[in-house]
Amino acid sequence: MKKHNFSAGPSILPQEVLQQASQAVIDYNNEGLSLIEISHRSKAFVDIMEQARALVIELLGLEGKGYKALFLQGGASTQFLMTAMNLLETKAGYVNTGAWSGKAIKEAQKVGNIVEIASSSDANFNYIPKGFEVPSDLDYLHITSNNTIFGTQFKSFPTTSVPLVCDMSSDIFSRAIDYSKFDLIYAGAQKNMGPAGTTLVVVKEDILGKVTRNIPSILDYQKHIGAGSMFNTPPVFAVYTSMLTLEWLKKEGGLEAIEKENEKKATLMYSEIDLNPLFKGFAATEDRSPMNATFNLVNENLKETFDTMLKEAGISGVNGHRSVGGYRASMYNALPLASVQALVEVMSELENKA
Ligand SMILES: *Cc1c(COP(=O)(O)O)cnc(C)c1O
């Protein structure tokens, strides 16, 4: 039986994407060759790469606005360093909203001068700082739109006169916002787009080429753009599967349609957390993430019973991150509403039992 997959990442992909991707590994397009045994310079793969890059720009509403999409390697973790290498000259600002922003700060500090503009570390990152001033003398401001571990999300974004850089690893393609507010977006594929192995970068070209540093080629966005996102052999399977997910998303109606679905799932999940006296939510109500819902049992003694019930209902991947504890239900684009219904049912059954 297929399980209800609430994994935080790598995470659920549409069933039809898994089927198409697995078929392509055996025989791509009935060409008698596997997708993963053909040249990345073949027309077949160049077309896939170009289609994937174009879909990214189209779905984000960034056509004709000077942006380029790249499928790179090294995970979002490499972007912590790469953004700084390409953009940091004198000083950059970071908003610290949890573990991943902390890591981004740590890497950027190896490159240059970093100022923490705002932080929610005073409350174990259970909220998003608001109302902070962004100095105008920064090279850029870096934020993390969705905090996968803590379950918080920026609902609106700081207004800045400096380039805005955003780690969107866990909520890219989940909502219809104005993406042209951002000058550089990056996201590991494995949360909401595809398998692990590729990292999406969407960059406004005119912010590049302004630092005096001699950037190593593999870390230089301009080199990757010049090479059509094929500076070195790209992760062909991860790019192809991401392309299939983007095609699926377009067919589903794009970001506006998926946002509605994600809202339905989040409303169902959070109303159970709020109304069921056995559970309490972790994140501040106004900042709760529709992607990752974090919650705890009020009475830890019920843990064994609850975990057994979850297992019996085929619910997988809801254990919280070690730094928060409790539970985390990740509800990425491909997770059906029925899976959230199944989880909510188990939570209310527990209430009836207790
Ligand atoms: C998972 C995650 C990362 C790390 O991604 P890798 O691809 O493993 O390097 C970074 N930022 C956020 C917000 C994440 O959720």
Automatic annotation (TrEMBL):
It holds the Pfam family Aminotran_5. Keywords: Amino-acid biosynthesis, Aminotransferase, Cytoplasm, Pyridoxal phosphate, Pyridoxine biosynthesis, Serine biosynthesis, Transferase. GO terms for biological process: L-serine biosynthetic process; pyridoxine biosynthetic process. It catalyses: O-phospho-L-serine + 2-oxoglutarate = 3-phosphooxypyruvate + L-glutamate; 4-(phosphooxy)-L-threonine + 2-oxoglutarate = (R)-3-hydroxy-2-oxo-4-phosphooxybutanoate + L-glutamate. Its cofactor is pyridoxal 5'-phosphate. Binds 1 pyridoxal phosphate per subunit. Pathway: Cofactor biosynthesis; pyridoxine 5'-phosphate biosynthesis; pyridoxine 5'-phosphate from D-erythrose 4-phosphate: step 3/5; Amino-acid biosynthesis; L-serine biosynthesis; L-serine from 3-phospho-D-glycerate: step 2/3. One of its GO terms (cellular component) is cytoplasm. InterPro entries: Aminotrans_V_dom, Aminotrans_V_PyrdxlP_BS, LisH, Pser_aminoTfrase, PyrdxlP-dep_Trfase, PyrdxlP-dep_Trfase_major, PyrdxlP-dep_Trfase_small. GO terms for molecular function: O-phospho-L-serine:2-oxoglutarate aminotransferase activity; pyridoxal phosphate binding. Its main location: cytoplasm. Its EC number is 2.6.1.52. Gene3D superfamilies: Aspartate Aminotransferase, domain 1, Type I PLP-dependent aspartate aminotransferase-like (Major domain). It is found in: Cytoplasm. Pyridoxal 5'-phosphate binds at residues 76-77, 100, 148, 167, 190, 232-233. L-glutamate binds at residue 41. NCBIfam families: PRK05355.1. Belongs to the class-V pyridoxal-phosphate-dependent aminotransferase family. SerC subfamily. Homodimer. Catalyzes the reversible conversion of 3-phosphohydroxypyruvate to phosphoserine and of 3-hydroxy-2-oxo-4-phosphonooxybutanoate to phosphohydroxythreonine. This is Phosphoserine aminotransferase. The lineage of its organism: Bacteria, Pseudomonadati, Bacteroidota, Flavobacteriia, Flavobacteriales.
